[in-house]
Amino acid sequence: MRVSKEDLHQLIQTKIERAGLTEEHADIVADVLAFADARGIHSHGAVRVEYYSERIAKGGITNRPEFRFEQTGPTSGIFHGDNGSGHVAAKRAMEEAIRIAGKNGVAVVGVKNMSHSGALAYFVEQAASCDFVALSVCQSDPMVVPFGGAEDYFGTNPIAFAAPTDDGRMLTFDMATTVQAWGKVLHARSRGESIPPTWAVDADGAPTTDPVKVNALLPIAGPKGYGLMMMVDVLSGILLGLPFGKHVSSMYADLSKGRDLGQLHIVINPAFFTDIEAFKANMSEVLDEVTAVAPAPGVDRVYYPGERGRLREAAYEKDGIEIVDDIYEYLISDAIHFDNYDGKNKFAE
To answer: Which residues of the chain fall below pLDDT 50?
Structure first.
């Protein structure tokens, strides 16, 4: 099934509102999810709606949260999320970070006690659209074996970064610190597809190509990914006085309870370090030079980070976004949730 981004946004918003969120908050959630699907990040798009609706309906996401921003220093602050929608809390926190960086050059804003916030690229692009550079990191629940280990301890703990240019392009990357995110496994399951043996392990710790048998993920580049996921855990958990590592709440264990997750936005105003127009021009130049690099055998061309997603978005704008049939059927149904998921076998970070 193919739908326009606008129609997908409306379908998601309607479902999320029906589950209990306010129109304003449901609109933001729908914007983040439709953004993900439009970029081809289907693991963080409409496939998540049933899970969010389930948790909202059961009280695990606060429908009308009492958000509060606490500025703790000239360039720092904490956004208290009251276990409301993570998409809304992350967006509001980034707005505060942009405000502070605009005035003082740099901002570091932590988000405490939030729910899952979806694709981090959405939030760093908020800052890049204001001519700022941004880095965002967040926690997820334990599902990754540390390098050399046989039991999971850390989450996929993603990192996102964005920077502007002088011609409307953005350098954007959004990556899990694992070879692939749980959402990619989820996407493979929804399509009945196999996965590469380098992504994950089964209950015995052996590599598996069956997404249904996945028990834990593997860190990207072995010890390097392991170090990065620990860094993210420190910045978005321990630094904010929140649960960390294996103590981070499960996405699927008890949907009636808030998750108390953490996220950290770091925003830099280039105008405090160099001429802003020169910065953006240099960013454009580096993107041009990277994409002009001779491609390796069997590769059509070199892409800059984020370019493929924007090309997908342009194609989807013309032909519509492809949505798996059962997800589309759920979106157009009257049901808020189906109560038919089976934990890690269907929903995961």
So the answer is: 340-349
